[in-house]
Specification:
Distance between the termini: 48 Å
Number of domains: 4
Helix content: 40-55%
């Protein structure tokens, strides 16, 4: 099976598996989501708290000075009176007075059977204080059966409505309530439960705003305090298809989970809010105005009173501060929420992310696929973190993140297996044909390289040693001839590969090479011509070395042509090679054959000249318009004389010579043979060379034997 097909199978399997886990197996990944979101909040750092919220703490200092808890109720009444006199706008009690005060004089005398009618009743004193102060009492719900029969119902002044209520209730339904004494409860203006339900790992992250008890709905202490502050009478519980979506209070919409729990946007570790010792309140050691108009919560941080919780920021966190934070979130509308629509966003994130990583693995190299996967994996974390801290929006991160990592990891292993096979094949085919840099490029982009035959524009190169038969005879032995050829071939091949060419084959003393395959190369015609010029220049240095070793001189001719050829793996089953074929190959071979009759070192066709991006870098001249053997269409041929600068040319035409040569060529190709003959005689006299002599002889023939029709094309009868 192909690599892409297996990648598609892997993508589909991971997509389906991850989707099923995300939608149906929340218990598997939710603990990890909790921890991840906790760390995001911790990484965000501490946030400013609402300065209007103050906690009066029954702390270790208070217990040391005033005695163990519970204190006599008259002392609690004094505390509430003191808070009211200091200007507290509202007092919430994170404590419950469920049993009579045994220290009350009335209670003591009644136990002794004495007349207690005129004695103080501390419970009633507290009740009367609660009635005349802005105090909201608290109570607690017991969630599970504990062997005690449920008793009285809590009292509530709030009207709680349910909108779009489904048949099944999603609210918490506790077993019983631990309430204040009837005398206290009856005198309270309002009350609310102060339960905070920890998650499965024991960490408190939310507060249930509404619970259903005995078919009635009751508000949390924090929600009831908000209701009183906003002077609202009605609380609305709004449902969607899968549970509660939010709780409304006046114009305030509080997002919740399906069970009506508000996620707490904790401000920091314990004691982020101002704490004042209850002892300092009773002793009058608080500056005037400290509590004026403030929301005061009365609770405890003393470890012995067991009202400590674990939160994302702290493992020992006073329960009263949980409710303070809930009120802070509602006052400032600074919520954390995971609306039901986020599940659809999670599925879309999963789908898009996996598809993008899958496409990168299928159609790009390892570097690009790694960059894509890394961007998506890190982007998922950064994006979810940004939404959490700026919008208070919680999305599922663990399942998409793990899925992205798994797809990239498994997909990379799969690619590695296939790429290893492809690289071995490429290295075997091209290690001796091209430069190591090109081999590395092929291996690094193995997916982009097709070894099957395809049409591709290439620049073809043929070179041949002039007079090779005579040279072979001079060498005397086959061994000496091979050594000489190796000394010649090595620098020639090095120059080809240095300029990103591909050596196709060695044909005796001839070299065939091409540019722009198997790797596409910018300005391949320029690279091919540059390599050709450098070969001619390098051959001069080689001949000097050969002369010192009493070895014969080597002269070569080079032919270049550019065109669309078929390149790819060709041959028989089990024995093939990567090569190119087609008419442009034949024309390049014919161009090399023209070097001898035109006494040129490098002959290139008009197609290569037109493909040059920088023709001004080379010294060139037009040679002729010919019809080579086997072709009916004529082609213009040019000679390259070297580089245009840095004195790297083996022949440089003066301006006068160049002007006279151009005129001679024009006269010749337009059939003015007498004028052309005179011009070529001047050229041969002043700048003698075989090319001018050849044209002089050709013009003399045409003057003596005028052709019936002349199109300026010279037809070659041999290869």
């Amino acid at each position: 099976m192909s690599r892409i097909f297996l990648q598609i199978i892997l993508l589909i399997v991971l997509l389906l598996t991850s989707g099923v886990v995300l939608l149906t197996q929340q218990d598997w990944y939710q603990p990890f989501e909790y921890k991840l979101n906790d760390q995001m909040l911790v990484f965000r750092g501490e946030q400013p708290v609402d300065p209007n919220i103050v906690i009066v703490d029954i702390d270790e200092k208070s217990l040391s000075e005033l005695g163990q808890w519970p204190w006599p109720r008259d002392q609690v009444a004094q505390l509430l009176d003191a808070l009211t006199q200091m200007g507290a706008g509202m007092i919430g009690l994170d404590v419950v007075f469920a049993e009579p005060d045994n220290s009350s004089p009335k209670r003591v005398f009644e136990r002794l059977g004495r007349d207690a009618d005129d004695l103080p009743d501390f419970d009633r004193m507290l009740a009367e204080t609660i009635a005349r102060t802005p105090t909201i009492t608290g109570y607690v719900f017991i969630q599970n059966p504990d062997g005690i029969n449920p008793g009285r119902l809590p009292t509530s002044r709030a009207t709680i409505l349910e909108r779009n209520k489904p048949e099944q209730s999603y609210l918490f339904q506790p077993y019983r309530a631990v309430l204040n004494l009837p005398v206290i409860q009856d005198n309270a203006y309002a009350s609310g439960y102060f339960n905070s339900v920890p998650d499965a790992d024991g960490v408190v992250r939310s507060v249930p705003l509404v619970m259903q008890y005995e078919q009635m709905l009751f508000p949390a202490l924090s929600l009831e305090m908000m209701r009183v502050m906003t002077e609202s009478r009605r609380i609305e519980v709004n449902y969607e298809n899968n549970g509660v979506s939010h709780v409304s209070l006046g114009g305030l919409a509080i997002p919740t989970d399906a069970n009506g729990q508000m996620l707490i946007n904790f401000r920091g570790p314990a004691f982020s809010y101002p704490y004042i010792s209850a002892a300092d309140i009773l002793n009058g050691d608080v500056a005037e105005g400290t509590l004026a108009g403030k929301i005061v919560l009365l609770g405890t941080s003393a470890s012995g009173l067991m009202d400590l919780r674990a939160t994302p920021f702290d493992s020992v966190y006073p329960g009263v501060e949980v409710h303070a934070t809930a009120i802070d979130n509602m006052l400032n509308q600074d919520f954390l929420a995971q609306p039901m629509w986020t599940l659809g966003a999670d599925v879309l994130t999963l789908l898009v992310g996996l598809v993008l990583i899958g496409l990168a693995l299928m159609f790009t190299g390892s570097v690009v696929s790694f960059a894509a996967a890394f961007t998506l994996i890190v982007g998922l974390m950064v994006g979810h973190y940004y939404l959490l801290i700026t919008q208070g929006l919680i999305l599922n991160t663990v399942v998409p993140w793990v899925s992205f990592v798994m797809l990239f990891g498994l997909g990379t292993v799969l690619n590695y297996f296939f790429e290893s096979r492809q690289k071995a094949r490429i290295r075997k085919r091209f290690a001796q044909k091209v430069s190591s840099a090109v081999v590395d490029e092929l291996i690094n982009h193995a997916d982009d390289v097709s070894l099957e035959g395809k049409e591709q524009e290439v620049t073809l190169f043929f070179s041949d040693i002039r007079g090779f038969t005579t040279l072979s005879e001079k060498m005397g032995s086959a061994r000496a001839l091979i050594d000489l050829l190796n000394r010649y071939m090595t620098p020639m091949v090095d120059i080809i590969t240095k300029h990103q060419g591909t050596v196709d084959k060695f044909i005796g003393d001839a070299i065939m090479a091409y540019w722009n395959a198997p790797v596409e190369i910018d300005q391949h015609a320029d690279e091919a011509l540059t390599a050709s010029v450098e070969q001619i220049l390098a051959l001069e240095d080689l001949n000097q070395t050969l002369a010192r070793d009493d070895l014969p001189r080597i002269d070569i001719g080079i032919g270049l042509n550019t065109g669309v050829a078929v390149v790819g793996e060709m041959g028989s089953v089990g024995r093939s090679d990567y090569t190119c074929i087609g008419d442009p190959v034949n024309l390049a071979s014919r161009a090399e054959g023209l070097c001898k009759p035109y006494s040129a070192k490098i002959v290139l066709t008009e197609f290569t000249v037109s493909a040059l991006a920088h023709p001004d870098r080379f010294q060139m001249r037009f040679l002729d318009k010919v019809r080579v053997k086997g072709k009916s269409q004529p082609v213009s041929i040019y000679e390259c004389l070297g580089f245009a600068q840095n004195d790297q040319a083996w022949y440089t035409m003066s301006t006068e010579e160049n002007k006279l040569f151009d005129q001679a060529q024009t006269d010749y190709h337009q059939g003015r043979f007498s004028q052309a003959l005179e011009a070529f005689r001047q050229l041969q006299t002043r700048w003698p060379q075989p090319l001018y002599d050849m044209y002089q002889s050709r013009c003399e023939h045409y003057v003596a034997h005028p052709p019936e029709s002349f199109d300026g094309v010279f037809t070659l009868e041999s290869k």
